Amino acid sequence: MSGRKRVGVLVSGRGSNLQALIDAAKDPAYPAEIVLVISNVPGVQGLARADQAHIATRVVNHKDFASRPDFESVLEAALHEARVELLCNAGFMRLLTEGFVTRWLNRHLNIHPSLLPAFKGLHTHARVLEAGAKISGCTVHFVRAAMDDGPIVAQAAVPVESGDTEEILADRVLAAEHRLYPHALRLVAAGKVRVEGEHVVGMPQQNGQSALFSPPLPATF
Ligand code: GRF
């Protein structure tokens, strides 16, 4: 398929969501291709996954830079060199400056392991259990300067079961993430959604329905 969107993925670690995107993009009909993976941490599994899939990688170690803008200018140079059109954070553990976020506005996605706007930030699953929530899940959203903030593209819900530990809940949510992220990137790359007043709305499809109303995951609560 010609006209696939060129996607860059930012990682800091394991890269299992990156793997889900790589696997989805193996289908030539998928509207995006992963052309570059950048890690801010050397030697992580995400880089090995990209190598394995013959995708170009870069390490841009934030520790090598005196300031956030210096770090980001090298990051952006690599993205431009690879002609990246859409950017996906996949377990990327750095906050980006407002300038960077503005330059990639509505072309930059993040995945977070909760049903946003609930449980932003770190230690999500521990806090979900602590709160006694009965449903958790994951969210793909466009990036804004505030952490885990921005227009929501897609969400998936999973039950919180009695007896869940942090690890068990994390695994259940992660399985949903691996289905949700390829779905959300497909919607964005295929131009099936747009941001209107900080909400994501579906572009009308030929059948008159919105692409957003056919989620791939049943809500299992
Ligand atoms: C995922 O749970 C993601 O939602 C969060 O960090 C984790 C990254 O996992 N932002 P992986 O690196 O994709 O395996």
Account of the protein in words:
The chain is α/β, with parallel strands linked by helices and 221 residues long. The protein has 6 helices and 9 strands; from the N terminus they run E-H-E-H-E-H-E-H-E-H-E-E-H-E-E. Helix 1 links the parallel strand 1 (5-11) and strand 2. Helix 1 runs parallel beside helix 6 (166-189). The longest helix is centred in the C-terminal third of the chain and has 24 residues, at 166-189. It is globular and about 50 Å long. Bound molecules: 5-O-phosphono-beta-D-ribofuranosylamine. 5-O-phosphono-beta-D-ribofuranosylamine (GRF) binds next to helix 1, strand 5 and helix 6.
- Rg (C-alpha, Å): 17 Å
DSSP helix fraction: 25-40%
Which small-molecule ligands are present, each listed once? 5-O-phosphono-beta-D-ribofuranosylamine
Globally, the shape reads: globular
Termini separation comes to 38 Å
Listing every helix as H and every strand as E from the N terminus to the C terminus, the arrangement reads EHEHEHEHEHEEHEE
Annotation, overall tally of beta strands: 9
Q: Report on the biggest sheet.
A: 7 strands, mixed
β-strand percent reads 15-25%
Largest sheet strand order? 3-2-1-4-5-6-7
Mean pLDDT: 93
Instruction: Give the structural class.
Output: alpha/beta
Low-confidence stretches: 212-216
- How many H/I helices? 6
